[in-house]
Amino acid sequence: QQIHLADFVSDQLDDHQASAQLKSVKLENNVPADLIVTSDEGRLMGILYNLLANAIKYNDDGGHVTVAATSTFAGWQLSVSDNGIGIPTNQQQRIFERFYRGDNGKTIPGTGLGLAIVAEQAAQLSGSINVTSELGAGTTIKIDFPNDN
């Protein structure tokens, strides 16, 4: 279905506001107001839910999380960025494995399933995931979706 992405992201950010407030994490929606995408709302909700939950959970008190999106020639791109603890380079490709928990996240409660769910949902929408992260500086996860998902 067609999704007004900025409104959709706002609703997801509202759902995460309570957990963000516990850590004084600021949530920001940088999605253009006029961006309309065609996608599966349920799968997109699962992706965004898990990315936001992790960005808040693995952030520092007083940090920030930003959701952005852009239209591309071949489709559109969704990104979730934080300024949290980051992921070591040698662990970045493993974070999408079921039950994998990086060394720097083992003291934080979790199951290691969130990003595996993101990867599965993105694959079902023909999306490709890219991770950039730096220890102590944060993480950005971008997903490129084709126009026909």
Structural write-up:
There is one protein chain. A hairpin with a 3-residue loop joins strand 4 and strand 5 (about 75-80). By secondary structure, the chain is α+β, with helices and mostly antiparallel strands. The model has no long low-confidence stretch (mean pLDDT about 85). The protein is globular. It has a 5-stranded mixed β-sheet. A two-stranded antiparallel sheet has the order 1-3. It is about 30% helix and about 30% strand. It has helices spanning about 5-15, 15-20, 40-55, 115-125, and strands spanning about 1-5, 25-30, 35-40, 65-70, 75-80, 130-135, 140-145.
Features:
single chain; 149 residues; alpha+beta; 5-stranded mixed beta sheet; two-stranded antiparallel sheet; 4 helices; 30% helix; globular
In N-to-C order, the SSE pattern is EHHEEHEEHEE
Unreliable runs = none
Oligomer: single chain
End-to-end span in angstroms?
Answer: 10 Å
Kindly report the average pLDDT value: 86
Overall form: globular
The rounded Rg comes to 14 Å
% residues in beta strands: 25-35%
Largest sheet: 5 strands, mixed
Helical fraction: 25-40%
The strand count comes to 7
User: How are strands sequenced across the largest beta sheet?
Assistant: 2-4-5-7-6
Number of helices: 4
Structural class: alpha+beta
